[in-house]
Amino acid sequence: MKSKVILLVCDGLGDRPIPELDFKTPLEAAETPNLDYVAKRGICGLMYTLGPGLRPGSDTSHLNILGYDYHKYYSGRGTIEVAGLGMKLEEGDVALRGNLGTVDENLTIIDRRAGRIRDVSEFVRELDNLEIDGVKFLVKPGTAHRVGIIMRGENLSNKIADADPHETGEKVHTVEALDDSREARRTAEVLNKYLEKCHQILLQHPENERRQKEKKLPANYLLVRGAGFYKSVPPFSERFGLKACCIAGGGLYKGIGAYLGMKILKVEGATALPDTNIDNKFDTVKDRLGEFDFFFVHVKAADSLGEDGNYLGKKEFIERIDRSLERLLSLDNTLLVVTADHSTPCSLKKHSADPVPICFYGLDVRTDSVTEFGERACAGGGLGRLTGSEVMPEIINILGLSDLVGA
Length: 407
Ligand code: ZN
Prior knowledge:
Layout: E1 4-10, H1 26-29, H2 33-41, E2 43-48, H3 58-65, H4 70-73, H5 77-84, E3 94-103, E4 109-111, H6 121-127, E5 130-132, E6 135-141, E7 146-152, H7 182-203, H8 206-213, E8 221-229, H9 236-240, E9 244-247, H10 251-259, E10 263-264, H11 278-287, E11 294-299, H12 301-307, H13 311-325, E12 334-339, E13 356-362, H14 375-378, E14 384-387, H15 391-398
Parallel strand pairs: 1-11, 1-12, 2-14, 9-10, 9-11
Antiparallel strand pairs: 2-13, 3-4, 3-7, 3-8, 5-6, 6-7, 12-13
The structure holds zinc ion.
C-alpha cells in the first residue's frame, strides 16, 4: 500500500520570546505532550519558507512549501481567491478579489464592507457576465461582503494598481497601469469602465433601496484589489504522483488547494477562527485516509492571535491543536509533517521572516536528539535549516520515490 502523507500547517505558529512567558515563545510555553512526542520520535529543523530575510505572505509561503516556486506560480492573490470560490480559470485571465462596499456621492469610502453585509449574491447576479471592449467579467459571491472577479479577453495584464484604497474616509482609486505596456493600460481602462458601470447598477439596485429603508448601508461600490494573471498550473497529484486533498477553514487556503488541483474536503465547524473544530479536521483525515495519498491540513488561528498580540490566546490555541493531534499519532504507514507557513510574533503583530519549526514523524524517518517541538529545540535538529521549497523533495525522498540523480 502506498504511504500516506499529512502536511499540517499551523498558520503563523512561530514567535519570539515573550517576557511574560518567562522568555519562552507561545509554542515553547504551551503544554504540548503530543507535539513533543512527535519531535522526540521524528526529525526536526527550522525552515525559512521563502528564504532567509524574506517575510512571507501566507499565499507565497504555502505555494513554496507545497512545491510550487512562488516566483513562477504566484502573480497576485486574486487567482488563488477565485480558485477557492470554485471559479475555473483559463490561461490569460486576470483575477481579482473584491468587496461590496459603501461610498458617498464623491466616491469616498464610508464602509469597505457595506455594513458587514451577509450575502451579496443578489447584487452579484447583476454584475456577472457583462462585457466591455471585448473583455468578459465573471463574478461570483464569496463569504459575506466578498466576491471573486475574472476578466477574460485578449491582451490583459495584472500590472494594475488596486481600486480599493483599503481605508475608510479615502476616495476610491481610479485603477492605474503599473507599467507602460499596452496590456496594462488596456486592462486598467476596461476595468475602470466596468467599475463605473457596476456603480451605476448598484445605485439603482432594488435591494439597496430596501437596505436604505432598513437603515442599512447600501452596497454601492465594487472595490477590487490583488490582480493576478493566470498561467496554467500543473496539478499537484500529477506533479508528485500523490492524490491530494485540502482540509481548511479559511478561503485563501481552500484557494491554494483548488489552485493546485486538490480536492477540497468540507469539514463541519472548520471556521478558520479560534473556535474552529480541529477534532473534526483531523477526524476527516482519518476517515478519508483510504481515498487520498496526501492531506494538506491547515489550521489558521495561531496567526490571527499573533496579529492581535494575544500571546496567551496563541498559547491556548496551540494547546488545542496538540490535544487534537493525538488522533493522528498512531496511523499506520503515514508520514506526518508539522510546520508553519511563517512566524507571526505577538510583539510585532505581523508576519516576520523568522524561521519556523518543522518536524517529520512516522514511517522510517531518521531521528535526532530533539525532544520538544519549539523554536529553540528545533534549531538543534537533524534537518538543520530548510527552505520551503525543500519540503516536497524531502517528503518524496522519505517515501522512497525520488528520481536518481546521475547513474
Ligand atoms: Zn499565514
